[in-house]
Amino acid sequence: MSKQTLELHWGILATGGIAQTFAKDLSIDPKTRNVSTIKHSVAAAASSSSKTRAQEFLKEVDAPSSAKAYGSYEELVKDPDVDIIYIATPHSHHFQNAMLCFEHGKNVLCEKALTVNAAQARVLVEKARSKDLFFMEAVWTRYFPLSIYVRELITSGHLGSVHRVIADLSMAMDPATSFADGKSRMVNVDLAGGALLDLGIYSLTWLFQTLYTTQPESQRRKPSVQTIMSPFKTGADVHTSMILEFPRGEGEGPVHGVATTSMLVAGDPDGKGSAGPTIRVQGTKGEVQVFHPAFRPVKTKLVMKDGTVEDKEWPQPGPGKGSGFFNKFGSDKREEGEGQGMFWEADEAGYALLEGRKESRYQSLEESVVIMEVMDEVRKQGGLKYPEKIESVEYPLNLT
Ligand SMILES: NC(=O)c1ccc[n+]([C@@H]2O[C@H](COP(=O)([O-])OP(=O)(O)OC[C@H]3O[C@@H](n4cnc5c(N)ncnc54)[C@H](OP(=O)(O)O)[C@@H]3O)[C@@H](O)[C@H]2O)c1
How sure is the predictor about 3, in pLDDT bands with cuts at 50, 70 and 90? Predict the structure, then answer.
């Protein structure tokens, strides 16, 4: 392993929808996004259901023939050829899975929401630190050039003083019909389902990366929150609205954040952006708007008080047309040769390991914990409690 370049050997823990999308993105040559010091490869994948499923997965994602298939997560974490593990199980299982990885000395990139609650997140952070391991929440959007551009508009002072951010991630899923049996991980409380932890975390991400991450570390303060939450018949939320106040120094505040999320209505009903932006970052000199979807935006609009209007497109790179490469998440398919955009976060994990960092540049572990604390408070106000077993910090626990 040279100090100038690094090939990361990934272990993929779980073989569901997003694990496939992520692993496919890893196969894209980093040079297509001007990255020359990091390379990625899938070294192994594990399925909790069977080794056969892991073998099928490796085929589906065009993994190298040397990649190993395991029929249990316990085998994966013992593989000495794996540098870092990507956890792609439902929220309910992240705590147990990440503890397993840390116990076996593995670095971790863990899907959002990091855990079910802040107490679990704190235990994981402590564990990773005590073992000197890299740990990062996989909020991929933060690593997009588009997000870096938005944050720079704020830190450079271009927007003036930012006083309000409005962010929505809503998708009309018709839960009463689509999730009628209540088993889908979107609404199943045993899997920590619900709009907040699944979709609302992106609305909160936009508030946090614009109003919290952009502050000097010593001045970052946890926001207060007020919530309205509507439950599905399972008890999981399907429609949640939050108003946050981010504390600022004397004479600067107050700074408001409005985060909404829903499975009942859509932020982009016609799928063409006709309803306008779903994110607005508003400063005294102007605002930057970001268009749906909050998790994978490809379009921004800058509207300044002096009359300047700047539309920008942010297409995701990839091998390009004619390459025969296709990626998708569920029924949401990309054009031929276009990446999903999950490689940006994978690159950040690579840079961190190359530089000896133990956490991400764009979302500290402390910030992940604060976001979990806010979501704890939102659930408390909304009356959403998950089963004790998945809220527990006990390890190991056998979850079904
Ligand atoms: N970044 C993004 O854009 C994005 C998008 C969607 C989801 N996510 C996040 O990724 C995670 C997984 O979401 P997903 O959509 O990939 O879910 P999914 O398709 O349901 O896959 C989850 C996988 O977890 C494993 N698993 C282990 N125990 C399970 C249990 N008790 N019930 C269900 N599955 C279990 C299964 O894989 P094995 O059988 O192989 O073990 C299953 O295929 C969630 O945290 C979600 O919030 C992120």
Answer: low
